[in-house]
Amino acid sequence: MLQFFQRSTRRLPVEISGATAIEYALIAAGIALMIITAVNGLGTRVSGLFASVSSSLK
């Protein structure tokens, strides 16, 4: 039984670093999603602004 716990504790740092990498990937994906949403909304507004300016100049 003692050998089982010793082997388990040796593998623990590897498993923690894998979990940390997954957490960082999820955070990066969330940030990327927020940036895409913001840029998409901003692009729509800028497009409308340019259309308005274009029609005013004609």
Question: How does this model look, in words?
Answer:
By secondary structure, the chain is an all-alpha fold. 97% of the residues lie in helices and 0% in strands. It is built from 1 helix and no strands. The radius of gyration is 25 Å and the shape is rod-shaped. It starts with a helix and ends with a helix. 0% of the residues are buried.
Portion in beta strands: under 5%
The overall pLDDT, averaged over residues, is 82
Helix content: over 70%
Estimate the global geometry from the Cα principal axes. rod-shaped
- H/E topology pattern: H
Radius of gyration: 25 Å
Question: What's the number of helices?
Answer: 1
Class inferred from helices and paired strands: mainly alpha
Strand runs, count: 0
Q: Could you give a short account of the major beta sheet? A: none
Sequence stretches where pLDDT stays below 50 over 5 or more residues: none
Terminal CA distance: 85 Å
Gist of the model:
Helix content is 97%, strand content 0%. The chain is mainly α and 58 residues long.
Task: Name the descriptors.
rod-shaped; mainly alpha
